[in-house]
Design brief:
Blueprint (H helix, E strand, L loop, with lengths): L7 H6 L2 H21 L7 H8 L4 H11 L2 H10 L4 H4 L8 H37 L4 E6 L2 E7 H26 L1 E2 L13 H11 L2 E2 L10 H28 L6 E2 L19 H14 L2 H6 L10 H30 L1 E2 L1 H9 L7 H10 L4 H17 L5 H6 L2 H4 L4 H6 L10 H8 L5
Parallel strand pairs: 3-4
Antiparallel strand pairs: 1-2, 5-6
Length: 435
């Protein structure tokens, strides 16, 4: 995890010390379950709870000798206990019982923080959607001017997509919130299911219906894929803002702080660097999907080819997502929206963007679609090549069009309001405003 792209909460959650403390919690709860079954002396679990401690540096000390992190952990914890109690740490368990249960707990907690950040971003996007509901802007297809639309609809679209991201992550979190204490091959040979049930209940995790030595990695892959899709949404938003901040467009502008500088050589520059950062880091996030999928296939009951991948992938994927959400929220909150530039861009082609409406009006007035299309296209292309006469002026002086449409009718076809008349209906349909 890079400090530059990680917030403090995620750094602390994924620290070695946090991981070992979560392991220790699994061990202490397992001891409580054993004591309830009468398999270890009464009072043992209370003393373990009071005395057991783990220090990451001591684990590293032992791991340098053992080359086995769980055995190193057990030895480090044992330093804080008397010999008679220490023997009940890891009683009846295998390494992955502890590791996978703790990992599920950590991932579930990380996703809770991500869901909180996603909710905050979605509210910010909703606010922009409502503010810009009736703001006209040119719609673009293939990067080219198409027809007028509502700028708010862009925000409404993102609001809906973020909602689907939210649903995906909630599903992934639910499927990740499982644990296993079922032994070396998943058949409870050295501990009864009661221990698993007890620990799961205390940790807020459901026992997996069936496991091998490990939890199955489709769960982890679903988490990573859901985060990558969310990253794709954020990249999509960032790319749109970057395109709209181009000098030639100038419709949107990401926040530029007092004292900020955009270029070492060109003092006039205000670059969309935060959006570029989001697009770049979203690529890194997507890059974790293939390793997550490849982790699903393990040899027989398990191997440990997944372990090293997950030590990098899961902390980095969750930390990056958390960081990107907060960055995008700051951008959305501080985004400068230049409605004057939107209007200027909408009108810059001299009304060419209304050609579709003219086409339909001529067809409605009795002209064949083929004839109407050729006629409107001819005037549109001529106007785009020769600005001395506008598209509308060319229509108004064409006798074939005058035979079908009056001048007031032609003028009405260059009004932007019809393109916004159904926006409120769309907002009601998707739940942004009341019915």
């Amino acid at each position: 995890m890079l400090d530059r792209y990680s917030r403090e909460g995620m750094k602390k959650l994924w620290s070695d010390q946090s991981r070992y403390e979560r392991w220790l919690e699994v061990e202490l709860l397992a001891a409580e379950a054993w004591e309830r079954l009468g398999q270890i002396p009464e009072g043992t679990s209370a003393r373990l709870r009071q005395d057991a401690r783990v220090d990451a540096e001591r684990v590293e000390h032992y791991e340098a000798r053992y080359h086995h992190d769980m055995l190193a952990f057990i030895s480090a914890v044992g330093e804080s206990l008397n010999e008679s109690d220490a023997k009940y740490i890891h009683f009846g368990l295998t390494s992955t019982d502890v590791v996978d249960t703790a990992l599920a707990s950590l991932v579930t907690e990380a996703l809770e923080e991500i869901l909180s950040g996603l909710g905050t971003l979605r509210e910010a996007v909703k606010r922009r959607a409502l503010e810009n509901r009736q703001v006209p802007v040119i719609g673009r297809t293939h990067g080219m001017h198409a027809e007028p639309t509502s700028h708010g609809l862009k925000w409404a679209l993102w609001w809906l997509e973020l909602g689907r991201d939210q649903e995906r992550i909630l599903r992934a979190q639910s499927n990740m919130a499982v644990m296993k204490l079922s032994g070396a091959v998943g058949n409870y040979a050295n501990l009864p299911p009661f221990v698993e049930d007890y620990v799961g209940e205390q940790m807020g995790l459901a026992p997996a219906p069936l496991s091998t030595q490990v939890l199955q990695r489709d769960r982890h892959a679903e988490v990573v894929a859901s985060l990558a899709i969310l990253g794709g949404t954020l990249d999509k938003m960032a790319t749109e803002i970057r395109l709209s901040q181009r000098t030639e467009v100038g419709e949107l502008e990401e926040p530029f702080a007092a004292g900020q500088r955009g270029s070492s050589a060109m003092p006039h520059k205000k670059n969309p660097i935060k959006c570029e950062q989001i697009s770049g880091l979203a690529r890194v996030l997507r890059g974790f999907v293939v390793p997550a999928l490849e982790d699903m296939a393990l040899w027989y009951e398990r191997d440990i080819s997944h372990s090293s991948v997950e030590r990098v992938m899961l902390p980095d994927a969750t930390a990056l997502t958390d960081y990107l959400l907060r960055q995008m929220t700051r951008i959305v909150d501080g985004l400068v929206i230049h409605t004057d530039r939107m209007l200027r861009n909408l009108t810059m082609t001299g009304g060419l963007v209304f050609s579709g409406g003219v086409l339909l009006a001529l067809v409605d007035a009795g002209m064949t679609r083929e004839e109407a299309y050729d006629l409107v296209q001819r005037h549109a292309l001529a106007a785009s090549q020769d600005a001395s006469q506008s598209f509308r002026e060319r229509l108004e002086t064409d006798s074939r069009i005058q035979d079908r449409l009056t001048l007031p009718q032609i003028a009405s076809l260059f009004d932007v309001s019809p393109y916004l008349r159904n926006v409120d209906a769309i907002y009601r349909r998707i739940g942004l405003i009341d019915s």
